[in-house]
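Hello support,

Our group uses your service weekly, and this is the first time we've seen a run hang past the timeout. The protein is DsbA family protein. I'm not sure whether the cause is the sequence or the server load. Input pasted verbatim:
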Amino acid sequence: MKRRDMILGGFAVLGLGGWYFTSQTGTGAMPNTELPGAANAQTSSADVDTSGIEEMVLGNPDASVTVIEYASYTCPHCANFHNGNYKKLKADYIDTGKIKFIYREVYFDRPGLWASMVARCGGSEKFFGLTDLLYKGEQDWKRAGSPADIAQELGRIGRLAGLDGDTLDACMQDREKAEQLVVWFEQNRDADGVQSTPSFVINGQLYRNMDYPDMKALIDAEIGS
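Update from on-call engineer: The timeout came from a worker crash unrelated to the input. Re-ran successfully.
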């Protein structure tokens, strides 16, 4: 509950693409910024319905191998994976229909949740394209400066993907969705025992970040079993 309270909090958005926050208490590259949250996260996790949260899936839904990635948009190791080995995984296994790939967000901080809300703003159709843009520009937007500067950069990325200002405002003001996302993450984290990012669950077995040849060997062994 303590971490959820830290991530969720009061939030306000100024329309037409101009964003501001009710609290700017942090300093440095990753400010302790307030985020959307229902009643400052006073509800318990058991009271939050996460059934409406969409799983973001690529590949063959009927594949014998399922690979789940747990990653944070503010995690540099996750950015390295997505800007490198993920492209190999996609070409070798996702695009060829050999695996079902699921991406699940991890929230260490408020900017990571903001990025997730922007990524999900266009639904599954735009999610992975926005995810690519967020990871390519991670060092720029997460170090943009004040909370308002970070939000402006995230809004710019959303607009690059074709989202308009009104749509982005509506997504970022959705306090109920924000809390649902955090509780959904907590449920997934606890169920799979995730402690670091990126982490991968391959047919139910949890693995930490690894070199691509090692991941390939694990997937090939599952395909061949």
